[in-house]
Amino acid sequence: MIELLASCGGAPKENIEKARSMKKGGKKKAPEINEVKRYALVIYNHGERREVTPEEFKAFIENNKELAAYFSDPNAVKNMKLPEIPPSVVIYDHWDKAAKKIISHLWKLSGAANFHAPVDPIALQIPDYLNIIKKPMDLGTIKRKLAGCEYEKCKDFVNDVKLVFNNTITYNGEISDYGKLGKKMLSEFENQSKALYLDYYM
To answer: What is the 3-state secondary structure (H, E, C) of the chain?
Structure first.
């Protein structure tokens, strides 16, 4: 998983010290410190972080053109339009925490056991399954990918969850019992995504 980290730096040292001394005195309001935002890319894998290599950085920029502007002009981040979020909503320091909470909720729902593991065409006697469903997906695989930090973007996680239930609808049909269950699970996922403001991380 690749993360974009921000750290402050660049303000003249004397300005920082002046602001701190004024704040300690309590008589005058400390002036705002306009510090330039510097951004760094790191690889996060199994609890360890390391800086990206030049090759990885180049690949990241090519695959994330919308973010590229923030490396050439860090101040552009000030113009970003983020969704309005009520003060009561918890915003996590990383989107995968919200994702894990959503998967944990979906996992426990009635009928969710049908989606815990990959579909077994032989055991279920549906030999045409892989001919119809080109990209199988299940909640167990998603949990494993989250635990292993295999998702680079929140959007990739969202697409996988939708794939689980859309596959069910596609193969079984909307009016079948499994199709109805897939639609119900998909609706609940969308409700949870809205409740946790998953769009904020995308």
So the answer is: CEEEEEEEECCCHHHHHHHHHHHHHCCCCCCCCCCEEEEEEEEEECCEEEECCHHHHHHHHHHCHHHHHHHHCHHHHHHCCCCCCCCCCCCCCCHHHHHHHHHHHHHCCCCHHHHCCCCCCCCCCCCCHHHHCCCCCCHHHHHHHHHCCCCCCHHHHHHHHHHHHHHHHHHHCCCCHHHHHHHHHHHHHHHHHHHCCHHHHC
Domain boundary at 46, 79, 112, which? 79
Is 86 inside a domain boundary? no
Q: Mark whether 196 and 111 lie in a shared domain.
A: yes
Domain that holds residue 24: 2-79
Split into its structural domains, the chain has a count of: 2
pTM of the model: 0.63
Tens digit of each residue's pLDDT (9 = 90 or more) over 84-109: 777 777 887 888 999 999 999 999 99
